[in-house]
Design goal:
By secondary structure, this protein is an alpha/beta fold. Helices cover 45% and strands 22% of the residues. It contains 16 helices and 15 strands. The strands form 2 sheets. Strands 7, 8, 9, 10, 11, 12, 13 and 15 form an 8-stranded mixed beta sheet that branches. It has a 7-stranded parallel beta sheet with strand order 3-2-1-4-5-6-14, with helices on both faces. α7 packs parallel to α10. The chain is globular, with a radius of gyration of 20 Å.
Length: 383
């Protein structure tokens, strides 16, 4: 099988298709790539579309997540394996396993804490042994937060306790994949807690440093609006980066919020979340919730063009306060496809730290990926 620089699994889905379009039109000269899956006709259609857009036509590799031999062959044919096939807790493990055993780089779009913890338990040591780099959450979950906090920390004094608070605002449509993953996560809270506890027991914490999360409901950034703590994967990723990088100081605290302009909006969000959480617990209501949004559907180009996100970060330490912003366009689809693609390009072609195992974007790519994303139109700025 021909070896390529990057292979994409899941290109026939909605977000996977946007990723294929972006990657195929942003490859450096001389680079090679492939799309992989089981439906040859659909893959050919994606390749035709990328070529029509003026991009590099990808090779096509036959692969099926349920076939271990085909996944091993896929991982053995590329330097970076990217996958948009989710929900990851159900469908994601074969790609992680294949990448870890092949000793290559791996990126995905998961926002599922249980999946990330389970993959650490199963494949972190294998990846450390083979030199594989397993980087989860390379889309809107969790690049703006992970790299935004790194960007903020780098402007604060070294060697002192640091406190960073993040406030996210967004306008757009959550992807069908994200919605299905969220319902799945709500239905598996006990399993997720057990997996997280097992990881914490085995992983340990850094010696001589303290890293923790925080946050309570209160006023928003700068005392304006209202802030609701978000129990998503994003603060977990930020804290893992902080545990790995001494630049985050001897004590580091990160608090993660959704920002609302008005109190009724906050209350409605809490109420809606409670309904979804309750409905996800029982199979009949869970099935009804999943029917509300298809995994493969997404908003049209006009809707995506009007979508946006803005993350305000306030960092304090050593008597210094820094306010930064990470912002961009449509978070659920357009910018997510861009972030995933630039992560894969960064791993394939940039000079990066020599890390292995399951890691984060801040640890594995850091400033190199921030530079790429800025060049691609995502804003990182100091206010």
């Amino acid at each position: 099988m021909t070896s390529v620089d990057i292979a994409l699994l899941g290109a026939t889905g909605f977000t996977g298709g946007l990723t294929a379009d972006y990657l195929g039109t942003h490859l450096p000269p001389g680079a090679s790539w492939a799309i992989a899956g089981r439906n040859q006709a659909k893959l050919e259609a994606v390749a035709d579309r990328v070529e029509t857009l003026g991009g590099v036509r990808p090779e096509i590799i036959s692969a099926e997540t349920g076939n271990a031999d085909s996944m091993a062959a896929l991982a053995g044919s590329t330097r970076v394996l990217m996958t948009t096939v989710g929900p990851y807790v159900q469908l994601g493990e074969p790609a992680v396993k294949a990448a870890a055993e092949a000793g290559i780089a791996y990126v995905d779009l998961t926002g599922e804490p249980e999946f990330v913890d389970a993959m650490w338990l199963k494949y972190h040591q294998t990846a450390q042994r083979t030199g594989a780099r397993l980087v989860h959450a390379c889309g809107f979950d969790s690049i703006p937060y992970d790299l935004g906090v790194l960007f903020t920390v780098e402007q604060l004094p070294e060697g002192v306790p640091l406190d960073v608070k993040g406030y996210i605002r967004a306008g757009g449509t959550a992807s069908g994949g994200t919605y299905h993953s969220a319902i799945g996560a709500f239905s598996r809270l006990r399993q997720s807690a057990r997996t997280a506890g097992e990881r914490k027991r085995l992983e340990g914490r850094p010696d001589g440093r303290r890293v923790r999360g925080g946050g309570t409901i209160g006023r928003g950034a700068g005392g304006r609006g209202w802030a609701l703590p978000l129990p998503t994967i994003d603060p977990q990723i930020v804290l893992r980066s902080a545990r790995s990088l001494e630049r985050y100081g001897p004590e580091f605290t990160y608090s993660h919020f959704a920002q609302f302009t008005k109190l009724p909006m906050l209350a409605a969000t809490i109420g809606g979340g409670a309904v979804l959480l309750a409905g996800a617990q029982l199979p009949p209501t869970r099935a009804l919730l999943l029917k509300l949004k298809s995994q493969g559907d997404g908003p049209d180009e006009q809707k995506r063009a009007s979508s946006w996100f803005s993350l305000r970060l306030i960092g304090e330490g050593g008597g210094t306060t820094v306010t930064t912003e990470v912002s961009g366009g449509d978070p659920g689809y357009t910018e997510t496809a861009k972030m995933l693609s630039e992560s894969a390009l960064c791993l394939a072609f940039d000079d990066l730290p020599a890390v292995s195992g399951q890691t984060t974007t801040a640890v594995a790519m850091g400033d190199a990926l921030i530079t790429r994303l800025r060049d691609a139109g995502i804003t990182f700025r100091t206010l």
